[in-house]
Amino acid sequence: xxxxxxxxxxxxxxxxxxxxxxxxxxxxxxxxxxxxxxxxxxxxxxxxxxxxxxxxxxxxxxxxxxxxxxxxxxxxxxxxxxxxxxxxxxxxxxxxxxxxxxxxxxxxxxxxxxxxxxxxxxxxxxxxxxxxxxxxxxxxxxxxxxxxxxxxxxxxxxxxxxxxxxxxxxxxxxxxxxxxxxxxxxxxxxxxxxxxxxxxxxxxxxxxxxxxxxxxxxxxxxxxxxxxxxxxxxxxxxxxxxxxxxxxxxxxxxxxxxxxxxxxxxxxxxxxxxxxxxxxxxx
Length: 283
Ligand code: ATR
Prior knowledge:
- The chain is built from 12 helices and 12 strands.
- With about 280 residues, the protein is an alpha/beta fold.
- It binds 2'-monophosphoadenosine-5'-diphosphate.
- 2'-monophosphoadenosine-5'-diphosphate (ATR) binds near residues 130, 133, 134, 191 and 193.
């Protein structure tokens, strides 16, 4: 292990990333020498940035939009999640080789395990959206043994591509099928950006949902999205998406700094305070 291991998060743009706050908290908590910084890299400069990582003293880092697919292609080794999802969000070196992993599926599962431990007892889920985030979540559900996965998307063709990729026969549907698909779904998850601050709301009538269904959202700004609010007002269980962000950071930290960190209420509060101050500044 390097004396002062340096890690990074890169994206374009990257200034709103909360990853430096999260990893900085853990570095301090463990009293480790090391650093984690945000580095903005334009798409045309990304391959050069990755090729120069070791020369610049980096032991690895996180990769976010729009670099996840290119990062995938630049890695010499990839973990199973990255291979299945087709995108890399975590880079590290092992025996001199650049490894790429995808921790989004892990973060999704770990968040639900923490927030609603029996969430995967019934193996049926309704997944809203068919983009990159949806891929990670479908991979996670398949790994947990979900046998009944219903993918709903505005563009049905994209849902079909995902269903084919993951071998889910008859799993692709348009938005108009939501009312009937809600029935029997133990888990309802929004993987689209709808409901995020500044975007359109996700307007779904949950009246057909099972009374013991769990509703979750990958959007965490606002913390209680319109979907989660609607679920709560119907008395359905909910888990917000902030925990997915926190948990997905755990494996990366362990790769770079050699300690497995914990997602604590204190860390969650730290990020929530940062979100509140960002919202205040934006006013
Ligand atoms: P990500 O990689 O973050 O998942 P993405 O690949 O752009 O982002 O996917 C965004 C998802 O949100 C898609 O499922 C998209 O639906 P389409 O495939 O039909 O584009 C969905 N989405 C975005 N805006 C939407 C809207 N106004 N109504 C319905 N779905 C929307």
